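Section 3.1: Structural characterization of target chains.
Under the original work plan, the team committed to producing a structural model for every single-chain target entering the pipeline before any wet-lab resources were allocated. The record below documents one such target. The sequence was received from the expression subgroup and is listed exactly as submitted; it comprises 169 residues.
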Amino acid sequence: MRVNKPDIIKEILYSVKDEYGSYHNRYVRDSLVFWLMCSGVHLYNIADIRTEDVNREAKQIKVNGTEYDIIDDDIFALMDAWAQCTYIESTRYGSVFLTDSEYLFRPNVVDRLFDEKSSSGSFIAAISRISNHYFDVTGKRITMTSVGVTMPRVFTDVIEIIEIVEVEP
């Protein structure tokens, strides 16, 4: 399942961009994670995407035997921008450098000590940040439903629907 209205995703990401302030690389990564999950990519497959898994001509990603359609060219632009990033901003540690890797989401040097891939926790945090920033900017909550296990205010599997609702004061 996936979001069938890319304009909703674009509107959400455009509205939260300024909330990231000087954390440009974090915005790029979080936006790419959000797009991929809205395209139907499972959370547990995101860390496994290798750069060679992306087929730009067919507009698909094939990972762990599953093919996912790329629903908008903005995803490619974000992939290109992410490939140029050499570090990710962290509120705790400042700039944390990324390691060279065959994976789309290269792990940072701290993560690399424990595993060669980025952790799913960083992807869940990315979605949570976008949701929280969107609420801060618009006063609206992004309600994400999923197939599979869910966590409060965050989904952990495939997005089925995105609904934006006004939160009453």
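The CA atoms of residues 54 and 133 lie 29 Å apart.
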